[in-house]
Amino acid sequence: MCSAIYMVWTKIKIKISNKTSRIRIDTLFVRKNIK
């Protein structure tokens, strides 16, 4: 039970980290385009 919750939590964490990294890449790309 605990291991299943841990797996789900890690999956959610990975999703959040992927989203944040994507947003960071997008902002960097936009800044480069502006410059």
Which spans of ≥5 residues are poorly predicted at pLDDT below 50?
none
How many individual β-strands? 0
So what's the overall shape?
rod-shaped
Given the helix and strand composition, which structural class is it? mainly alpha
Radius of gyration: 15 Å
Gap between N and C termini, in Å? 51 Å
Q: Helix tally?
A: 1
Mean pLDDT: 86
Helix percentage range: over 70%
User: How many domains, as an integer?
Assistant: 1
Main sheet overview: none
SSE order, one letter for each helix or strand: H
| Strand coverage percent | under 5%
Short structural summary:
The chain is mainly α and 35 residues long.
List keywords for this structure.
mainly alpha, 94% helix, 35 residues, 0% strand
Q: What do these coordinates show?
A:
- This protein has 35 residues and is mainly α.
- The protein has one domain (1-35).
- It is 94% helix and 0% strand.
- The longest helix is centred in the middle third of the chain and has 33 residues, at 2-34.
- The protein is rod-shaped, with a radius of gyration of 15 Å.
- The mean pLDDT is 86.
